[in-house]
Amino acid sequence: MTRLRPLLLALPLATAHAAETRHDLLRFTNGDQLHGTYLGIKPGPVMSWMREDVGGPVEFKTTQLRHVVLHGGRPDKVLPLLSHVSLANGDRIPGTITGLADDTLTLDSPFAGSLRIPCRQISMISPNPLGGRVFYHGPFSEDEWINVDPAHPDGLGPAADDDKEDAENEDEAGRWEFSGSSWYWREKSGGTALIRKDGMPDRAMLRFELAWKSRMALAIGFHADFKRPVLEADGDEKPEPPRFSPGDTSALPWIFGNAYVLQLNSNYLRLTRSFVDEDGRPSVDPNRSNLNQLRLGDSGKVVVELRASRDSGRISLFVDDEFVAQWSEGDEFAPGEGKYVGKGAGFGFLPQMDDCPVRISDIITTEWNGMPDSARSMQLEDQDIVLMANGTDRFAGRVEGIDGGLIDFETKHGSFRLPVEEVAEIRLASNDVAEPSEAPADAVLVRYSPIGAISGLPVGGDGDTLRLSHPVAGEIDLSLESAVMLEFHPSNRIIDDWDADF
Amino acid sequence: MRISNIAILGILLPALPAPADDILLSGAGNRLTGEVRSIEPSGIVELASPLTTEPLRLTGGSVRKVTFTAAAPGRSTPEGSLELSNGDRLPVRQVRMSGDVLQVDSPDLGKIDIPRDAAHTLQVGIEGLNKVYQGPKSLREWTSGGDDPKNWLFRDGTLRAEGTARASAGLDLPRSFVLKFTLSWDNLPNVRVWFADSENSVEEARDRYLLQFNRAGMELKRESSEGRHPVPIAVLNRTPDLYPDRRLEVEIAVDRNTSRIHLFLNGEPEGTFEDPVTPVPAGGVVRFECNTSRGQTQEIHRIEVYQFDDSRRRHHSEDRGDPETDSLISRDDDRWGGRLMEIASGPGGAVFRFKSDFQEKPLELPEEEVSTIFFARKEGEKPAEEASPFVLKLRDNGSLRVKSCRFAEGRVDAEHPLLGPIRFAGGAVTEMEWVGDSERDEKEGGSE
Q: Which residue, among B396, B366, B195, has the nearest Cα to B282 in the 3D structure?
């Protein structure tokens, strides 16, 4: 298997921003928002902000702030690596792993210098994570996402005019709304999908955080080609696409074309095939509908991970890193020639019920290295697990040390010396990982692109740097040139207090 | 040997020297009983039958399938499976490897040497399907727990329900098991099957699984001792009209260690499902309930239970990874890439010496710790092409494609594209099937 190729080949190029034209966005807890320029944080803590139409910097108490989106969601400089360590408190600190000795790991971070982290605070070491090239990570901007419905397959067009009468806007289709680093659905009626036309290679992993209030009814289309069904003319009249009620599976081909669609509900899930044949006739295949037990409850937040391979026909679903279901499509004896119906590289989300607000965030698509579920989702209590970057090899044992680019790994079958560059992930024994502590009320979470989330108490800093008091690494100076967001009052609670009216 | 329907006109067959069994021929309903004497590389099949004066020589493609009934005397259970680079599968008792040669002891072929380059996958240890039960053996076996035998008939290994009928048996299901059975019906099915049940009474709320199949489709549920409503695990839109021959083979593999259930219908995988309730049902009883309308029947037969080890199936289906590297997967799920150096004899069985890419000294794993070996493909080598039109089926899921074979004195001699000349022990071959180019053969057509 080939090693992980340099990240820069797969990521969209970051647009260089001239320093004098930086556009940041500030959102408040009461829903207000301001465009301007982030100037830094002072003791208080208070945040300084500059707007052209205000004479001087404005200071805001951080207790009233929700988040700051930096550089319009596109950083000055994308981090040149995916290597990171994941901490017990949920932080992901990017950097090159340089050593491990005396129960302390050293990490060379591109934005914070050299860091020393106690191993007990580390849940995972990821020199080459995610199984392959990153094709998409976001959302940090609305770019390349489209709101579509059967009547508007190319997009809904500009949003409704606020000046118009409500009656004129009544027939407008609902829209997904982008805010911060998330997409929100808060419309009364379902039926509008949020799609991306690319991002899924032949062997793909799609991972995202899903939060919902009240009931869950969300369809996730993947490996979609968005082929449009042919409209049948009725006499001389211009053909109109059919109207569908939310939840009508007949709508799926009109949204996704040839695709697989995973329908998630509060208590069950279903995988459906969506077809548009050569003559443009749409259909869904109920014969592949499997209802599986799923217990998501009426509100909450989960991490959904879908793995799908056009070659082998295997589709697997994980929720919060636990295996949920697996399907076999296609013909393993005739790769590429089987029954796999997902013909495209796109994916999307479609609410399938009225009044089912959801939030989608932290979306990432990568090449899937084929790692089977038995290893990938396994975390042992008393052993570390190494997953190699070739996507197949894996061992259980103990990390004894890291030095000179080699990991000393002890197993019952002997000692191994594993090159760091050939290791995808090391999942540390859960018994050895400390319990996460609650983040303090005044904490801030700094998000980096493409990967990284570091939390701590802000001590100070200007528009380009931030000094944080980190609960594990101590006081650290962070460069913000690769940061995309500052989140204030990050929460570890299952139910986030996300404001539907943001 | 009595000859069943002969639908080929103008054929006279000589006396049979020894019995074979069903021989299916091309064309609907064509069938003979006789003895296949030989199959030539050209595809011509020589068939001996008492109805002809001379053996019948059928051109390639005429004979579709031959089922042999002669049992292999005293055949021991193989302890592994070797898959060849052309997809053929050979059950094996013992494998050793020295240099580039595998020395294989096969219950069907005896001791043979196989070039390493011809090997694709080796799976070691007792085949994941160790049979625990086969039946039904009698009606009493299935109604001794208190079920009313009324409305049941038992004949030829089949439980036949004429009306509403219940039957159950304690089968001592292993921790992880496969339950297989065949359902057939003459109008509409209406069957409920409980498994991993703990009692023979249906009234009490208990931890157990339920599979039901009726005109609405098929549903898998989890019943709980906590008295809640049964929790749906899977609902499948598999309605009876999808099975026009009114017969369904059901296979349910339950891994109670991981709370997963794999369902197969007519050999096709339907999905893997997770039991959402903990703890898993611990019982060993299987129970059938047929709700049959008056005048109609439903039948249950070929009930089999196997001890199920999912790891071999999972390991076999893993991505092979780098085709130029061997891989070794252990029973506890570790996997190494590198090179298999040797399979040697040790005090307790075979010892696998494997040089990992990340270790200086080779690993030495005893046989009981090894699950699966993926052999590297020789650099530049393409997978073997299928050139052999006959598939010989062996017991324990063995299957070999041959170019030609001759049947004589209870033996089968054949020419294999990778193994060369091979000889099967008496009774080893259970079926022979033609998988050649039927279009070409129809052009050549007819029989001699």
A: B195
The domain spans of chain B are: 1-71+385-448, 97-126+312-374, 130-308
Superfamily of domain B130-308: Exo-inulinase; domain 1 (2.60.120.560)
Report yes or no: A186 and A167 within 8 Å, Cβ to Cβ.
no
A102 touches chain B (CB under 8 A): no
Distances (CA, A) of A311 to A225, A271, A342, B443: 17, 18, 11, 36
For testing contact with chain A, the best of B319, B324, B401 (most A CBs within 10 A): B319
Closest Cβ opposite residue A391 in set B260, B321, B365? B321
What domains are defined for chain A?
18-73+437-488 (no CATH), 100-110+117-129+373-432 (2.30.30.100), 134-367 (2.60.120.560)
Using a pLDDT cut of 70, give the percent of chain B over it. Answer: 82
Nearest-Cα distance to chain A for B305, in Å, is 24
Residue-wise pLDDT for A390-424, tens only, equals 878 888 999 999 999 999 999 998 899 999 999 98
Alpha-carbon dihedral angle through residues A332, A336, A339, A343, given to the nearest 10 degrees: 140
Which of A291, A296, A319 is most worth mutating to test chain B (most B CB atoms within 10 A of its CB)?
Answer: A291
Query: Distance, in angstroms, between A384 CA and closest chain B CA?
Result: 12
Nearest to B359 among A291, A370, A414 (CB): A414
Q: How far is B393 from chain A (nearest CA, A)?
A: 19
| Distance (Å, whole) CA B292 – CA B288 | 12
pLDDT tens-place string over residues B328-371: 999 888 999 999 999 999 988 899 999 998 888 899 999 989 99
φ and ψ of B359, to 5 deg: -135, 145
Phi, psi (rounded to 5 degrees) for A116: -115, 125
Give mean pLDDT, residues A364-373: 73
Quote the pTM value: 0.70
Give the pair of three-digit tokens for residue B146.
């208190």
Judge contact between A193 and A261, C-beta under 8 A. Answer: no
pLDDT of A334 over the 50 cut: no
Q: Rg of chain B's alpha carbons, rounded to an integer?
A: 25
ipTM of the complex: 0.71
pLDDT(A164) > 70: no
* SS3 state at A273: strand
